[in-house]
Amino acid sequence: MPVTIVVGAQWGDEGKGRVADWLARESDGIARYAGGDNAGHTVIVGDAVFKLHLVPSGVVHSDKKCFLGNGMVINPVRLVSELDMLAERGIDISPDRIHLSPRAHVITPGHMELDGAADKARGKDAIGTTKRGIGLAYTDKATRVGLLTGEMADAEQFADAVQHSIEQANIILQSKYGAPPMDAVELVAEYAEAARRLQPYLADTNALIHDMLEADQRLLCEGAQGTLLDIDHGHYPFVTSSNATTGGAMTGLGFGPHYVDRVIGVVKAYCTRVGNGPFPTELLDETGEQLRQAGHEFGTTTGRPRRCGWLDMVALKYAIRVNGFNELVLSKMDVLGGMAEIKIATAYELDGKPITNMPLDTAAMERAQPVYEAVPGWDADISGARVMADLPEATQRYIKRIEELSGVKVMMVSVGPERDQAVQL
Ligand code: IMP
């Protein structure tokens, strides 16, 4: 069974890029299956920091194949600039190894502009989207008026379709939001040029992936966002517009579950969330600020400060159920250094009653109050630890406690941003 799926177990930003980079070493191909450039995956190799939004993190390994699956939404201009950035830094971006599904959907300038206008119009109920046009591109996909990446094969026809999309968006921008229209000329030319550049990358990713799987080569599926941002499994409407969870890998690439043997949940040692929506363990105090500063908790894509809080076991158990995780990676353990005490939410209190199942109703989740268990912290710098025995006893106890409460084995703990700063268990 040659497939590993890596999924964020919380609200995104768990450090999936780095885990994918690690696991890529034992994979033949790496695939993104959902979302678009709302994602921001960071991979650090020596002095080089790669911030990737569309191309799978495994691209930094030059001998691996990379796939952008049909479940994704693609901004062609941003994809071209990401490929150019990689090429400038010596990464092989040849179309022999990077393949874009012709059945992904295109994010047009109209989608981006409408995303911003619509979220602004929501006022205090804003989702706080990344304004990358994600929701609008998936809306067009679902209503069957979307633009497929495959249409880039004919750049002139594609330009006409982008022009049409901008004109349609301009009508809504002006009539519904009182916003100025976009000037189509430059945008259309830019999209047409990007289409020409991307033509060689268009390939039947489904067939290529199946050839790999049939040859028993390993495929790593790199999730974007996180379980609690999944359109079906997060707290609607404070979600993204795709299936970030395990199931999304199968629909977003097109293979059956019998190929999958490893489902790895990436869990930050505490919790963060960007944008609005329920977050029971959020810390609006000095401890929250300490986590934000120590963990550099500012969005890779938007630069927004992330909301920070303690690890939420109620939400994690839900994520384990939804995804079927059989292994966990704990990330950013080093950030907790210096805390006298660390808390884990093991239950919630909802309207005066204790509960251990995460409420699915968004308003109920907003009212849920965390019930904490406290464990001792540690004061040592653990960034040099490489095996469990290098870690202070309190850190080891925290890891063991997470395993006990979750019922899932931890396979790796990251203790710093660099590739080798990890403890293998
Ligand atoms: P959208 O995906 O841009 O529509 O944003 C919907 C919600 O998901 C907002 O709360 C975003 O902040 C959040 N979101 C989207 N992508 C990411 C991500 O990669 N990391 C963390 N949050 C994200």
Describe the protein.
The mean pLDDT is 96. The strands form five sheets. The chain has a nine-stranded mixed sheet, with helices on both faces. Strands 13, 15, 16 and 17 form a four-stranded mixed sheet that branches. A hairpin with a 2-residue loop joins strand 15 (341-350) and strand 16 (353-355). Helix content is 33%, strand content 20%. The protein has three domains: 3-102 and 202-264, Adenylosuccinate Synthetase, subunit A, domain 1 (Adenylosuccinate Synthetase, Chain A, domain 1), CATH 3.40.440; 105-198, Adenylosuccinate Synthetase, subunit A, domain 2 (Orthogonal Bundle), CATH 1.10.300.10; 266-424, Adenylosuccinate Synthetase, Chain A, domain 3 (Alpha-Beta Complex). It has helices at residues 16-24, 76-88, 109-121, 134-142, 155-177, 184-198, 205-214, 246-253, 286-294, 313-323, 362-367, 393-406, and strands spanning 3-8, 29-32, 41-45, 48-52, 65-68, 73-74, 98-100, 105-106, 219-222, 260-268, 271-273, 307-309, 311-312, 327-331, 341-350, 353-355, 369-376, 410-414, 422-424. Helix 2 (76-88) crosses helix 6 (184-198), helix 3 (109-121) crosses helix 4 (134-142) and helix 3 (109-121) runs parallel beside helix 5 (155-177). The structure holds inosinic acid. Residues 12-13, 38-40, 127-130, 132, 134-135, 224-225, 229, 240-241, 274-275 line the site of inosinic acid.
